[in-house]
Write a structure and sequence with these properties.
six-stranded antiparallel β-sheet, PmbA, Metalloprtase-TldD/E_cen_dom, TldD/PmbA_N, globular, alpha+beta, PmbA protein
């Protein structure tokens, strides 16, 4: 969508009585192919072009969005937004980002857009190759399918305070999921990857083979008795342990007083040597952007530095409420006021491989899948259903299922030991993580 169109919408909002305004546009095209048991199952194509408007009348705000961008529809959008704002309750912290914090060009070149547009036939070939490789495992008896997709998006923001920015991004993905059986039990396994550039993806054959291996490896899973033992979270799911941290250090949670870390700023939360960084300017990063969703200049942050919590994550509204400065972590869609999110979040690797962590722990649980997490946001009490492998004498012994692990995250973070096996699979990544003792509920 053209910059001039958004500038016209902002100008129209001011003329209609808004004191300030911002307009965002999102254009997206996507193509996804699913195959199952060697047959084409689904072709999904998406083309969208949407407009969002946020206006302020004093300390009152409203947001509206729509997909009709004709002049008449834009006029109604503006009229509706200003009318809604006049009726909204006052919010003493509402407002656009401070003008002095806005990003100024030229913006960093992040290499987020691959112009390739694979045909449906090419994507079907990739999806089929991934599923075929998974089904080639002799223990695989059924398939949940293989898929491949390609998408591109434009995001543009224009504000009445003079900001105008746009970035163009692409994404490509491959996935396979299959079921293994031995006549008595069935277990599923999957693998998948996404990347900004198509050439950065692994081969579909390697994706499929890993999915098949994981399904077959789970056969014979058994229940175990309840116990307390060392627990290792595999790198593929380890970030699920860190997700609650991000919610707990977000400005809105701190402002509401509903965070189990509300008194921990500049305190030792993790052990020494643990570092977590958030980098919006990672080249080809799946979470990268040249500015945040309020137009604020963003940058790399060391959220956890040598185990110490260094900052809250803030947008402009939560920063005002806390009498602090925004950290450039505003995140929004077309409708609604901005929230807070990270970009490319990475728990930095430690020195030991997963095998060495297992050897050091001796006896315990390796978690490879998780479901149904439960968190008390005020206390940090946390539990999750999971499956994985029991290990003894420093080696994997047998697969286990239908278990729950539980603990308090403040205590768990303090005892967490990162492994060395960091893999970049998405916008949030961690190596395998060892905690020396957790409550495990089994049969």
């Amino acid at each position: 969508m053209e910059e001039s169109l958004l500038a016209d919408v902002v100008a129209a909002a001011l003329k209609a009585g808004a004191d300030s305004a911002e307009a965002v546009s999102a254009q997206r095209s996507a193509l996804g192919i699913n195959v199952r048991l060697g047959e084409l199952e689904e072709v999904e194509r998406e083309e969208s072009r949407d407009l969002g408007l946020r206006v302020f009348v004093g300390q009152r705000q409203a947001t509206v969005s729509g997909s009709d961008i004709s002049p008449a529809a834009r006029a109604k959008l503006v009229e509706r937004a200003v009318a809604m704002a006049r009726l909204a309750p006052e919010d003493p912290y509402a407002g656009l980002a401070p003008k002095e914090r806005l990003a100024k060009g030229p913006f960093p070149e992040l290499d987020l857009y691959d112009p390739q547009e694979p045909s449906p036939e090419a994507l079907e070939e990739v999806a089929r190759a991934a599923e075929d490789a998974a089904r080639a495992n002799p223990k695989v008896t059924n398939s949940e399918g293989g898929s491949a997709s390609a998408s591109s998006s434009h995001w543009r923001l224009v504000t009445s305070t003079g900001f105008s920015g746009v970035y163009h991004a692409s994404a490509f993905s491959i996935m396979a999921s299959v079921v293994a059986g031995d006549g008595e039990t069935m277990e599923s396994g999957y693998d998948g990857r996404s990347a900004r550039w198509r050439g950065d993806l692994p081969t579909p054959k390697s994706i499929g083979e890993e999915a098949g291996r994981r399904a077959a490896q789970r056969l014979g899973a058994r229940k175990i008795a309840s116990t307390t033992a060392p627990v290792i979270f595999e790198n593929r799911i380890a970030m699920s342990l860190i997700g609650p941290l991000i919610g707990a250090i977000s400005g809105p949670s701190i402002a509401r007083g509903t965070s189990f870390l509300k008194d921990k700023l500049n305190a030792q939360v993790f052990g020494k040597g643990v570092n977590i960084v958030d980098d919006p300017h990672k080249v080809r990063g799946l979470g990268s952007s040249p500015f945040d969703d309020e137009g604020v200049q963003n940058r790399r942050w060391s959220l956890i530095e040598d185990g110490v919590l260094t900052t809250w994550l803030m947008n402009s509204a939560s920063a005002r409420q806390l009498s602090l400065e925004t950290t450039g972590h505003a995140s929004r869609g077309l409708a609604g006021a901005p929230g807070v999110s990270t970009t490319n979040l990475t728990l930095q690797p430690g020195a030991k491989s997963q095998a060495e962590l297992i050897a050091d722990a001796g006896k315990g649980l390796l978690i490879t899948s998780m479901f149904g997490p439960s968190l008390n946001g005020n206390t940090g009490d946390w539990s999750v259903g999971c499956a994985g492998f029991w290990f003894e004498n420093g080696e994997l012994a047998y697969p286990v299922t239908e278990i729950t692990v539980a603990g308090n995250l403040v205590d768990m973070y303090g005892r967490l030991i990162p492994g060395s096996d960091l893999e970049i699979r998405g916008s949030a990544n961690a190596p395998s993580l060892l905690i020396d003792g957790l409550a495990i509920a089994g049969r």
